[in-house]
Amino acid sequence: MNDTNVSSPVLERLTDEWDALTPEAQKAARYVLENPTEVGVSTVREIAEAAKVKPNTLVRMARQVGFTGYEDFRAPFREAIRNNAASFPDRARWLQDIGKSGELGGLYADMVGAALRNIEETFAGIDAASLQEAAQRIWTSRQVFTLGVGVNNANARNFTYLASTGMKQFHAIPRPGSTPVDDLAWADDQDVLIAMTCKPYRTEVIEAVKLAREQGLTVIALSDSPASPIILSADHGFVVAADTPQFFPSSVSTIAVLETLLSFVIAVSSDEIVDRVERFHRRRHLLGIYAEEPE
């Protein structure tokens, strides 16, 4: 949802009353939930056209959730824009406010603050040229192995899953019942290893990176320090901020870097990849894997 601080009570009312809305009113409500700032600056006809409904559907939607009409419904959105609430709130004040909001408010503020800082610190230390070099090597490789254990195992598998919607020969390791070094047994200088680990560093990841270098693979490493053993051994190293108030490293920055790296791979690839991704998703629609949105 975009700009969820815009008229939050109205948006919450829409979600609370969702099941009571007619299918057409749900289409209108979905557009409002996903584009709240547009409501305050667009006419009812413009919103209706964008949501692909009739203008009177918006009126019925507003009444179904307790407003006298569409203008009454739209008023809080316009007020939010006039009061500047549509922009992202001042971070320090926002975090301070939620820190006072009950027993778990302090934890919430700490978690949000850490996540935002991690993203900023991570991308402040990474330049686009470095990502492009790593992406180009991935694109020209024969196979890509993505290694993560513990919490990073899910990150590795998510990256591999997304990449596999348009590209072949991506492998998340360790495979079930295997070890990273065994999975790399027949890999060589035509291949790439993407490895990730944060303090305390996992020995199996360190050993796999060491073996990969001996076998000539290109190593792309994500870790939480420039002095991390896998960063020091990597051809392309990306330092991710992983601070958190909880008991295990945050994955927010790791996921963000992996997603950005994949977007760069697609950007440097051939047009065939875009076609493959489109065909992959068309196939899923035909097989009924996706719930179709009402027309």
UniProtKB/TrEMBL annotation:
Keywords: DNA-binding, Transcription, Transcription regulation. PANTHER family: GLUCOKINASE (PTHR30514), RPIR-FAMILY TRANSCRIPTIONAL REGULATOR (PTHR30514:SF18). It holds the Pfam family HTH_6. SUPFAM superfamilies: Homeodomain-like, SIS domain. This is MurR/RpiR family transcriptional regulator. InterPro entries: Homeodomain-like_sf, HTH_RpiR, RpiR-like, RpiR-like_SIS, SIS_dom, SIS_dom_sf, WH-like_DNA-bd_sf. It comes from the Bacteria. Residues 134-279 form the SIS domain. Residues 8-84 form the HTH rpiR-type domain. CDD domains: SIS_RpiR. The keyword Endoplasmic reticulum does not apply.
